[in-house]
Design goal:
Number of helices: 12
Mean pLDDT: 84
Low-confidence stretches: 216-222, 226-237, 239-253
Order of helices and strands: HHHHHHHHHHHH
Number of strands: 0
Structural class: mainly alpha
Shape: elongated
Strand content: under 5%
Length: about 250
């Protein structure tokens, strides 16, 4: 029994850290960096402030961890026949996760907003660019890319376009998954040989299909990609539906 205790403590620490990250993502997504309070994050995560400070040195440190989660947490994805398909899947899976994973949504908001000057917002962009570029390099080596394509250029183009589509979709109330699908459907034929382009799945719901196969064909059913429904329910209880502010908010930090 005693030999198991260190592992039990380690598992508990991992769960506690994840709960804090998810609660922080909820608060950052709802209010942005400047208006987020550690007291509300602690309450939502159902931990003590001591536990929060055990894992994170400050609000800025916690926000950076949420930002870094974009590229540091990757679900297991089945390798595809074409690297060009995996290039598409990166964005389609992220679009899917933005709908189902509060940590991804909180991370995206922190990356796009301008408050919190000490935060490194370049890291997620560069991380996504590096992932896309690596797949484009492999695609070129495998003879999938058209001769004129420089692997780094479509990587930067797609990452920048995705960020813009995310903002536009939120502002106009559009379906991000459909907008990203249209992006890849338009761009990929200019990057890969026609025989490859004809076999790529860029249709809406591709992110779910890539993660869950046929069970995820409708974009939602069978999804278990860290939806964090318990955290979402906690938010519904904690946020006043009229004013959008926490009911009985604690004192400012």
């Amino acid at each position: 029994m005693r030999a198991d205790r260190p592992q039990v403590k380690q598992d508990r620490a991992v769960r506690t850290r994840r709960a804090i990250l998810e609660a922080a993502a909820v608060v950052f997504e709802e209010r942005g960096y400047d208006n987020a309070k550690l007291s509300d994050i602690v309450r939502l995560a159902e931990v003590t402030k001591g536990a929060l400070y055990f894992h994170f040195d400050s609000k800025e440190d916690l926000a950076q961890a949420v930002i870094d989660a974009q590229v540091n947490t990757h679900p297991a994805v089945t390798p595809q026949e074409f690297r060009a398909q995996q290039f598409v899947d990166i964005g389609m899976i992220f679009s899917h996760r933005l709908r189902h994973d509060v940590l991804m949504r909180g991370s995206a908001r922190l990356t796009l907003e301008q408050s919190g000057r000490g935060l490194d917002r370049a890291a997620p962009y560069q991380g996504w660019i590096d992932l896309h570029t690596a797949l484009m390099v492999e695609a070129k080596e495998r003879g999938e890319l058209l001769p004129h394509v420089d692997p780094g250029q479509p990587a930067r183009l797609v990452v920048g376009a995705f960020a813009g589509l995310n903002v536009m979709s939120q502002t106009l109330g559009l379906d991000l998954d459909r907008e990203v699908s249209a992006l890849y459907t338009s761009v990929m034929p200019s990057l890969v040989f026609p025989a490859v382009a004809a076999l790529l799945d860029t249709a809406p719901g591709r992110g779910s299909r890539a993660l869950h196969g046929a069970n995820g064909a409708n974009g939602a059913r069978g999804c278990d990609c860290s939806a964090r429904q318990a955290v979402e329910r906690a938010v519904e209880r904690a946020v006043d539906p009229v004013v959008g502010a926490p009911a009985g908010a604690l004192a400012a930090d």
